[in-house]
Amino acid sequence: MEAPPLTPSCSPTSLLLRHKNPLSFNTFPRSRNVKTPTNFSIRASSSTSNDSVVTLLDYGAGNVRSVRNAIRFLGFEIKDVQTPEDILNASRLVFPGVGAFAPAMEVLSKTGMGEALCSYIEKDRPFLGICLGLQLLFESSEENGPIKGLGLIPGTVGRFDSSNGFRVPHIGWNALQITKDSEILDDVGNHHVYFVHSYRAMPSDDNKDWVSSTCDYGDKFIASIRRGNVHAVQFHPEKSGDVGLSILRRFLYPNSSVAKKTGEGKASKLAKRVIACLDVRANDNGDLVVTKGDQYDVRENTKENEVRNLGKPVELAQQYYKDGADEVSFLNITGFRDFPLGDLPMLQVLRYTSENVFVPLTVGGGIRDFTDSKGRHYSSLEVAAEYFRSGADKISIGSDAVYAAEEYLRTGVKTGKTSLEQISRVYGNQAVVVSIDPRRVYINNPNDVQFQTIKVSSPGPNGEEYAWYQCTVNGGREGRPIGAYELAKAVEELGAGEILLNCIDCDGQGKGFDVGLIKLISDAVNIPVIASSGAGIPNHFSDVFTKTNASAALAAGIFHRKEVPIQSVKEHLLNEGIEVRI
Questions:
Q1: Active site residues
Q2: Is 502 annotated as ligand-binding?
Q3: 366 is annotated as contributing to ligand binding
Q4: How deeply is 145 buried, as exposed, middle or buried, from its count of CB atoms within 10 A (0-12, 13-18, 19+)?
Q5: Backbone dihedral region for residue 497 (phi beyond 0: left; psi -120 to 50: alpha; all else: beta)
Q6: 54-81: per-residue pLDDT in tens?
Q7: Is residue 398 marked as binding?
Q8: Which of 124, 132, 253, 576 has a Cα at 20 to 30 A from 494?
Q9: Is the peptide bond before 146 cis (omega within 30 degrees of 0)?
């Protein structure tokens, strides 16, 4: 996988993985199966006693902070792999693979880690692979390939088929079908676990002895494997709440009775997600607060005109996790004018939140290329890397995606240099959300504009029966000559894995989502769409899920002001026959 240049001295890959004590790649032999990488490093740290230590194979691509936090939460210390011998000497090894298949195989090959990993697993030593850490065990992958894998399990990792109406990436909480005694899955029962991936391995006669559970998403794919002390899962236990922690606990304490029952679940298929959103900005005193706008205006209608303060970000995120939020999204709503890498309070919010919140975290705001006052250029990839290292699982791109889509529609050329293309290529499109902030423009005749229109349910101010949705940038302050439909189609082609669909007209009104807009966009793309703006009561969530193809619905103010608890929304959806995680 070739990455675009950042500066004359370093590639995006090396920029992402740079560490104060990088391991030299010239030390270890190259594997037979793959080519040499560009620049990767393995992170090093001090060791502790083997009784309470987990050896972690972290090659630096993506967010593994939550895996670290979950392991520490369960009472273990972490030793990072520094040499192949660290793998061979591990008492228990966790491999949380994140990113794309090819560069991961390259780093395993170049450092000699691949041979050590195969030797460790073949000796039936305690091993847990997560997501890509499962896929790499197979013979090969079609991702940017074919690329040879470690070859321990028969089979090829292929892409989900989106032609049958299933959205790719597979993002969200899905059910497992446990096929044999797996030990670590003993507490899962009928509960959902969290998946986020575009590629999967399929069960076959050749690998059936390995398969411990499957999952249905268009086809039945391998959700987990187990042979002896060797385990690997396609889903993310560190992002699967209490159920995921129970899986990690079972692996870390295999002969103990400490495992906690998680109660009865009702999981049968992919659940609709309920997401809590926290709009974060500094108030006039410089303190980072959660706020909420009324059509994007976050100041109170008082003499002081102060920023609306609805709480502290870390505390609210932890509360929403306890309340059952399926994801937590942080939007740095002043990110478009702030210096992103200097935005240390926001990075701290992510770090502290990820210590105790074990569901996916998304962060948006200020993810773009820029040059600082000293003339140093920072790529959007470097900005995103800082967010991922701080605990984000997904990043949300707003204004920069609009500009990229406009240029792509004008030229028809994918340059590979836009923030959207660079980040999705390095981290995978499942890690990239595009946030669309449109505003209704009413018209009398659809032929009056070049953009896709809808017939509105309520006429415009002058009796107009149609509208198109003009995209905006800079926090809704500037309209652009591109419609929401056109933008959504373009960013999907450029590498977006998910769309967060807002509506300025509905924001803060509490009268329901813009169902017409959400249906227009969710019918137009093959990636998941998150409905946002306008939720006021639980019925608004069931409306958007029954009338559109939205995969998730997001709310902010009604949760912050405790007008509608998250659990009430989920109970309502369950009563309406809509699958949710409980």
A1: 131, 236, 238, 279, 437
A2: yes
A3: yes
A4: middle
A5: alpha
A6: 999 987 666 789 999 999 999 999 999 9
A7: no
A8: 132
A9: yes
